Amino acid sequence: MIEMKNMKKNLLCMIVALTTLSVCSGQETPVDSRLSAGVIKALKTSGENKAEIAKALTLAPSVQRKGMKFLIEHMPETDLKTLKADFLLENVALAYKARAEFPWAKNVPEEIFFNDVLPYAVLNETRDNWRKDFYERFSKYVKEAKTMEEAITAVNKAIKDEVKVDYNTKRKKPHQSPYESMEINMASCTGLSILLNDAFRSVGIPSRVAGIPMWTTKPGNHNWVEVWTPSDKSWHFTEYYPDDSGKLDRGWLLADAAKANPKSFVHSVYATSWKPTDGHFPMVWNMKSKQVPGVNVSEFYIKLGGGNEKKAANMCELRIDHTVDGKRIEVPVAVIQGDVKLDEGTTPKPTDDMNMFYSFSVSKGQMYQVVWMAPGEKKWRRVEIHPKGKESFLRVKLAK
After folding, report:
1. Is-contact 52 19, C-beta < 8 A?
2. Of 39, 228, 325, 393, which has fewest CB within 10 angstroms of its CB?
3. What mean pLDDT comes out for the span 261-277?
């Protein structure tokens, strides 16, 4: 009975030390009280779940404690208030196990390991305890891999048959967790990306979800996966259904992703992060949420797809005027793409040269809107423009 009371008292001392950076009088604790402000804040945020978070910190082996601190410091508030110590301890232990077991995983820098291997989730999906199951499922495919690239290819080839999930618009929700997708054998591109991301992480491969909220070339959005390779210390993209070549940075999505607009929130390509960034990852099923940190990686895809070398040949000049009964009328006009106003001005007056237009260059194959306000009106009119073909310019006559 006395021993039990001492154990409870020691645990209470641990929690107090973690939250106040003080130590109970007469008690020694294995907890390192030199915690970051972020961890202290996380403990305070955890509320009634504080004992579980404190337990995870105190029981993590010394070689894993730095990773546990990183994980907890950047956990979403809902996780801090609900996740149990055993869940966190097992997740961290298995992540470190994979890091130690596979030679190519040892070459991953600590900051990449913490941010893109260690986390138990990538978006706001249900928090499944997938890591042990996925390690057992996918470690057998990578045990002979000598490089990270070989391991990535092995997982990519195996995942569809291993989890038996296919793309299907009848899935229950876009951001299904691994087991939610495996239960019904179907998922959206987001659900498939979560599955692939977790499979990669389970065997020590740094992985994150990437995506675009809205294509510039057509309606809709898309999410896929990026992996980090030690050989060039860079991120590369792949998908649940990889390119037939088996190589990274290959696939149908590149042609569209390369036409992203980095200045537009909805037309940019983003990648997820566990630690805070200057922005957030837009989740189309909850665009108001800023829960998931993100980085704008549009320039990577623009460059990968040809960048400025192809830009000039792919441009089309919009030549815009407003004519009523054969007479030109000056009206305010703007060219918009998604949520970004690219340019604005006025259409030519009746006295302007007939060869003069309001003009603006856009990329072929992308969607734009031309908006204008007719005389005497207070409401903007708009027309969708989708230039294609070989023409170097497109005449746009605004309707009455």
Report:
1. no
2. 325
3. 97
Domain 108-304 has CATH 3.10.620: yes
Rg for the chain, CA atoms, rounded: 27
Residue recorded with tokens 């000039």: 312
Q: Which CATH superfamily is domain 314-398 in?
A: Immunoglobulins (2.60.40.10)
pLDDT confidence of residue 2: 52
In whole angstroms, give the CA distance from residue 151 to residue 141.
8
Asked whether the beta carbons of 192 and 186 are under 8 A apart, the reply is no
User: What is the rounded distance in angstroms from the CA atom of residue 24 to the CA atom of residue 6?
Assistant: 13
Q: Is the CB of residue 366 less than 8 Å from the CB of residue 341?
A: no
Q: Where are the beta strands (DSSP E) in the chain?
A: 166-167, 186-187, 207-212, 222-229, 234-238, 270-272, 279-280, 293-296, 315-324, 327-328, 332-337, 340-346, 358-363, 368-372, 381-385, 393-398
Distances in Å between the alpha carbon of 317 and those of 329, 344, 370? 21, 14, 13
Q: In this structure, which amino acid lies at residue 266? A: V
Helix (H) / strand (E) element for 155: namely helix 148-163
Picking from 347, 359, 367, the residue whose alpha carbon sits closest to that of residue 395 is 359
Q: Using CA atoms, how far apart are residues 314 and 283, in angstroms rounded to an integer?
A: 30
Distant-in-sequence, close-in-space partners of 199: CB < 8 Å, separation ≥ 6: 134, 137, 138, 155, 159, 162, 163
CA 291 to chain centroid: 11
Helix axes 148-163, 131-142, angle to 10 degrees: 120
Can you give the residue ranges of every domain in the chain? 1-83, 108-304, 314-398
**Token pair of 255 as six digits:** 């042609």
Distance, CA of 298 to CA of 371 (rounded, Å): 26
What whole-number distance in Å separates Cα of residue 383 and Cα of residue 330? Answer: 17
Tell me how far CA of residue 114 lies from CA of 77, 204, 214, in angstroms: 19, 11, 30
pTM: 0.83
Tens-digit pLDDT profile for residues 12-50:
455 555 554 433 433 433 444 567 899 999 999 999 999
* 232-260 pLDDT, tens digit each: 999 999 999 998 888 999 998 998 999 99
